[in-house]
Amino acid sequence: MTEEWKDHLNEIFLKEFLRAPFKEMFIEIINEMLMTTVEDDSVAEERENLLKKIFLKEYKLLRVFSKGMLNEIVNEMVISTDEERNNLLKRIFLKEFLKKLSKERFNEFVDKVLLSTDEDKEHTSPSEKATEEETTHTYMYNPVPGKHKKYRDDEKHSTTLQRMKRLGRRLCRKLGLKEGLLTSSWNDHPRKVGGLAFPIEEDGPVVRTQYSDVRGLYVEDLEGVIFFGLPYGEPPVGEFRWKPPRQYNRSWAPKVRDGTVPGPGCYQSRCGPNDGDDVFQCPRDRKVSEDCLYLNIFAPRTILNSAAAKLPILFWIHGGENEQGSGSAYFYDGRFLSNKTNAIVVTTNYRLAAFGYLVAGQGEDAATGNYGLLDQAAGLRWVKENIGSFGGDKNRVTVFGQSTGSDATSTLLISPKFADLFHHAIMLSVPLTIPHKSRWEALRLGDHLADKLGCSHGDMKCLRSKNSSALQAGLDRMGTFFSNPYRPLEVSVKWGPVVDGDIVPGPTVDSFAKGHFQSKPFIIGTTSEEAVLYIYSLYNKPVTSLVTLYAIYAAFVHLKAVEVSIEYPTETNTSDYRPHMSKLTTDWVFKCSTRNVIRSAVRKGNTNVWLYVFDHVWSFPHLWDYQKNCNGHVCHAEDLPFVFQTTRLPVTNMTMTAEEQKMADAIAYYYGNFAHTGDPNQPSRDAAETTRMTMPGTATTWPKYNQEGNFPCLNISTPSTSLIHDYRKDKCDFWDRMDVYNL
């Protein structure tokens, strides 16, 4: 290797992306893997095994590379021409993780570095050099576009094996590893592995399920395992669009299912291949499909010990206004939460927008809505039937969600149809005041979509004839639409559950008030400034007092509007009333409806309930780059980075302070205890389950909501958690008197 190459690599690649000791390894990979072409499957499999050994076992590069990217490199790049390889590298690397590296500089890197044929031989032994001299003229990559010298049929496997073993020995020397560590399992008779990118058993844990075996990933630093993309329902496509989910019942045998790559997310906008990355909402690799009923499992490695105690489940339902989101989004990666709580975290997809909630037509072919909710229930049913294979306890399932995912959780609580599927609930930032639609309102929304698609109202044949992208395009054209002009809050959540008297028996707040809910332990709470995100999105410029009063009168009938105006008087010394509107809306939509529901639960006999408020402004300055007005505020979703602790994933490019880490650990302590015992203060008594469950010094005992008679609320913040009594009492007493939680 020339000094010029080394300097160029160090300047462009190492400084911008890789950390030592990966530089030399990557040079070796490029030299060894890109300079030949292979036609024999067994040779290709040995080559894949080599990449697996280097990338996964010794270098743990899954912390830096995405699994999808590695698969694509292995499966496509090594058999492409040099020109195709050049373009593929640029496309994959730029798309997957080199977002901060300019395209021009990366093109320069690919052209001048990766396509070079020089080899680093400074540590090559004389015998290895002799072997290279014998084989190079036959097997070296030919840098002429579209031309490769081929292996001779009788020598291609043995020579490839020699080259791989030589590469393995070099890498061991460079890293100070025991020689042979990378090559000890290689022999002249490679196993047939079925075409998987990282196929052999050493790659990750293999679990036997009722569908046959599935292979996952090890998370070595966390002593964890991950199983991605497990189907919990048959694809809801074709004639099964707008039908309840069907139980998945296909065997994977004789193959071992690849659980190392997430399945596609459910169809949604702004997550396509030409859109920007969104670690908050979009599925990994930004792949969306109607075939999307997949879930992911994150677990401690103790599940591999059949004698270990069964662990509880934290089943996550993502938010996103029922129009966006995915269980595989990086923001909801459950590996850190699983590690902190010593529980199994399950994240899931469910059908969104019209794909999941359309109401249209009549008779047997009608779309009746609530399919997204039924998907969530189907995921829970899959967990009940299969989680034992993964070391989980089907009798300790905690459903938790945020925003519309939390609304779904509350809906599961009021529906007796789902009572046997879970045991505890955690509801983060549930917008209880935003009503579920009646059938009449949902039909009006469906008719509006039909107009945008050029279909007659209720014409299911026409609606079903639209492919996924056409249907999504129609959704994108709908704009702001009020199916009921007297319910202005639906502007925030257009699609969602429909009150049908069966799956959704009634409005959530009313159902709790009447005692129509499952008496299960639950935690519920909000951030301190929920509505800032919504008000500043709705009004992107300062608003006057007149506009504020008009908005109040538009939201409430006349007499109640007068009372609201008196309770929340407009100030006279400001030119922007959006902060005023944010406080009013946070109380009305989030905080006080939450207090109303938890008080109803206590009155109806459910005393195992806990209330919190999250009140910390994150130190990381770029969380709200897309919504600058949330900087300095505790907006909707501000708590999620601390719940999942995904700041530790390089792809999120986020940080937290030491105090914030302690706060995040306190949250994990409360949620972990709750998953184990149904009490956020009570760890499991089983020693095998409590290894990670120690009370952080910043945590405090969290009383039940009615335990002390003055309605305690846990204030989650830094430097420590604390208790607030009678939180927002005066304002919430006012909203209870107004009886406006179902407008």
UniProtKB/TrEMBL annotation:
Domain Carboxylesterase type B: 204-735
Record has Zinc as a keyword: no
Keywords: Hydrolase
Cell membrane listed as a keyword: no
The organism's place on the tree of life at top rank: Eukaryota
Pfam families: COesterase
Example GO molecular function: hydrolase activity
Family: Belongs to the type-B carboxylesterase/lipase family.
Protein name, entry field: Carboxylesterase type B domain-containing protein
Organism expressing this protein natively: Branchiostoma floridae (Florida lancelet)
